[in-house]
Every structure is written in C-alpha cells, then in structure tokens.
Design a protein that fits this description.
This protein has 3 helices and 2 strands, in the order E-E-H-H-H. It is mainly alpha-helical and about 100 residues long. The chain is elongated.
Length: about 100
C-alpha cells in the first residue's frame, strides 16, 4: 500500500503536497519530511538524436566492427578439429603407467 516502516519516498494517499519519507526523529511533528525530488527538464530528451551523436563519437558506423573492437577475426591457419580426432580423444583410455614419488 506504499506505507510501512521504511524511509523510501512515497505519497500513496496524497496526504502531503509531494512525496515524503519517515525520519529517525521520534517527535511527532518531525516524523515525516518532504523529499527533495528535482523537476524533470522542460525540454524532453531526443533519444534518437542522442543515439546518433553517440554512434558518431564511437565511430561504429556498421555491424562489422569486431576487428575494430577485438582485433582481427581472420585466421591464416585451419584451426578446425577433425571429427575423427575428437572421437579418438573421447575413446582414449587412461594411461596404465604408475606415478612415482608418492
């Protein structure tokens, strides 16, 4: 219901002119105080324009920016693991040798 024993700003029943919170003061006259909530700016934000400005600052103008962010994604060597090698590793038995020094 918005009330309760916590000091978050609230005004569920419009009992005061703006949101209020409980204080630590036990005096009844000072039990609640108005919260200082800043007013929103008169001019609404233009999020589309802000996004455009930010993308220009970041210099990412297309979706192919992995090289710019992380370095080259192109490799000059075939790094694929053949399926037969992966299968051999799966079927490989443990080494039958004993460890010395125990």
């Amino acid at each position: 219901n918005g009330l309760g024993n916590h000091n978050y700003c609230r005004n569920p029943d419009s009992s005061m002119e703006s949101p209020w919170c409980f204080t630590m003061d036990t005096t009844e006259a000072h039990k609640k105080e108005l919260c200082e909530i800043p007013k929103c700016p008169a001019k609404p934000r233009d999020f589309t324009e802000e996004a455009s400005d930010l993308s220009t600052q970041v210099e990412a103008k297309d979706c192919e920016c992995a090289d710019q962010l992380y370095g080259s994604t192109v490799t000059t060597k075939d790094t694929s693991v053949p399926l037969t090698l992966a299968q051999q590793q799966k079927n490989k038995k443990a080494c039958p040798c004993t460890r010395s020094g125990r």
